[in-house]
């Protein structure tokens, strides 16, 4: 979590930023996702930098527009810039964000090593978001969006998304 | 290093990614199974995202009035500097996987070097892309093994693709004038030094997949100089159609 410290976010802006969510995972605010890298006010303009989860993530443009709109709603003008470095990692998802993912039916990312084994079918470590069983299998390394893989529970048979670990 | 060297150098890297991304996009809705269809288009999405980062950088550096779209859609065939490998058609799924595998092994090595570039933007793009490309390589390596060590038919088909595409691998390690100029200034990397490790890695996985390693010593080149194969024209006519037909159109 050390990289968190590099964020420079004006605490007064947080309540507004928390209202903006990932359009593809509506339960996750951009703050909980860890994509907001800086936020400050200068000369009456709110300057925000965000970092993409994946290079081609189509949600980034929408998030940028949503941020501008959220500030417009409270009478503020905002500018959004994209930064690539340091590269986003799933470690930046907050504990609250992980909980929201699980409740929404998306298994939260594991550690990189566990992830490798799970994705290669070596170990059964990804828990079913429906019944909690660890008796699950990988159906597809790639899922409905760039950040997810598709799993299925062998006990309750429910298919579910897994948020891939990215480090 | 002149500015033009840097521009051409970035094209050399970015055009590979764009053209392979375009080839994979052609599979959208046409993959052999739902999972592989989604996988190929997900990989395409990553590659097109990386392309955008490179082209946005070029646009910002050199042409104030040009955008990433001008670079992607409005150049002529000889202005694209991608290697011949990535423009080869999707003939059958064996070709898709072998082309991907041959490129992924190289791509990951290239990015691992490029992250040490003295150019901060290129280094940042590389660091970001490494995470994505490691995943691509895992996918394509797995499929090489699954097809090679699969049924008689899958083995024969993937072997055919290996034999056919092998001749495009050597070009990955050729240095252009722009590569040399950027290498001297610490921005570019030396792809020649990657070659031994590349073939070692590729051969290990082919052997594990029970596939024969081609013995040909004749290799095809030209893409890096803008001299492309016949397939490139067709690919570009697809890629550029909308911008050529409706200039300046927007989504």
Automatic annotation (TrEMBL), chain A:
Domain MIP18 family-like: start-end pairs: 17-80
Name of this chain's protein: Phenylacetate-CoA oxygenase subunit PaaJ
InterPro entries in UniProt: Fe-S_Maturation_MIP18, FSCA_dom_sf, MIP18-like, PaaD-like, Zn_ribbon_PaaD
Residue ranges constituting the PaaD zinc beta ribbon domain according to the UniProt record: 114-164
Superkingdom to which the source organism belongs: Bacteria
PANTHER family reported for this sequence: 1,2-PHENYLACETYL-COA EPOXIDASE, SUBUNIT D-RELATED, FE-S PROTEIN MATURATION AUXILIARY FACTOR YITW
TrEMBL record, chain B:
SUPFAM superfamilies hit by this protein: Ferritin-like (SSF47240)
PANTHER family tied to this protein: 1,2-PHENYLACETYL-COA EPOXIDASE, SUBUNIT C (PTHR30458:SF0), PHENYLACETIC ACID DEGRADATION PROTEIN PAA (PTHR30458)
Transmembrane segments: none
Native source organism of the sequence: Aquimarina algicola
Protein name: Phenylacetate-CoA oxygenase subunit PaaC
Gene name for this UniProt entry: paaC
Pfam families according to UniProt: PaaA_PaaC
A biological process from GO: phenylacetate catabolic process
GO cellular component: cytosol
